[in-house]
Amino acid sequence: MKRGLDREMDRAGLPKPKPEPGLGAGVGPGDEPRAVGSLSVSEAVLGDDFARLDAQLQRYFGPIPAGHEGRGRGIYAWAGSRYRLLRPVLAWLAWRHILFPERGRDVPFTVVNRPDGPEALSARREFEFSHVTRVMEDTMSVIRSPGARPRLVDRLGRRRGLEVELELSVEDGGLRMRSTRLALRLRMPHLPTRGVPGVRRVHGVRGVPGADAASPIRHLRIPLPRIVTMTLDERAHPDGDGRQCVDVRLRAPVLGDVFRYLGEFEYGIVPVLAPGPVPLSVSAPEPEPLPKPEQLPKPEQPSRSGDSGGFPGTSA
After folding, report:
1. Of 131, 137, 240, 291, which one's alpha carbon is 20 to 30 angstroms from that of 314?
2. Greatest pairwise CA separation for the chain in angstroms
């Protein structure tokens, strides 16, 4: 597979990916490998407008070649919600890998993007707070219908249970995503029919006499009212040093921004180091070793004046 990819890239005049793993491998303009003969989810939806994106964003939102993944690391100036009343809901969403109840400034952030089949992209984001690392997962897919423009649908969470349809546009070289529809996808278990005589499934129809089978029901899709609107604005850093700026907002009527994260990060396309998801956790400093008992200071003798309730050497 690697030789075939190299031949295709040589034929197209594209540089080969550098073998060094890790963030920064092939980050410079023109140094990153590019998938040949394929479209990313953003290219498929934007069409000719994709060329209006800043060159740096074209690399970020462009296709990822087979055997590679996109990795980013940065700092978010703010991440979380300013409404404490939403913490129970956000805590449940954190368990589903959708949002989180924590909030803070200067939060280390990592992202891993991987192709997930034709015109599909999966992402894993990590926000490292001082006491916990929160994960957000999603998969974007292009939905094509005869006679209509391609649509972009994002399914969020560990089980991809929250479905968001996104509208894409290019503004001043940056990309804006805006949610237009929401739906909840409930995974339905296969209803057991083993032991029920004469029940089987034929072309998705139950109740036809024959062999035993399970129910064809897999998901139940429930449209949700647009009580929250999501917008994402991404642009190249004005310094032109390869960083990207992102601002994601969830807005509700009357309340305004109920959840937001914004900051900047670096991004590169690198070879996949191992099969399966490879999260990029920002390593925390190792704790200092505890002192040995003989190194602890000896307690001071209590004052003879009869003082009590205060620290040594002070009055009560």
Report:
1. 291
2. 97
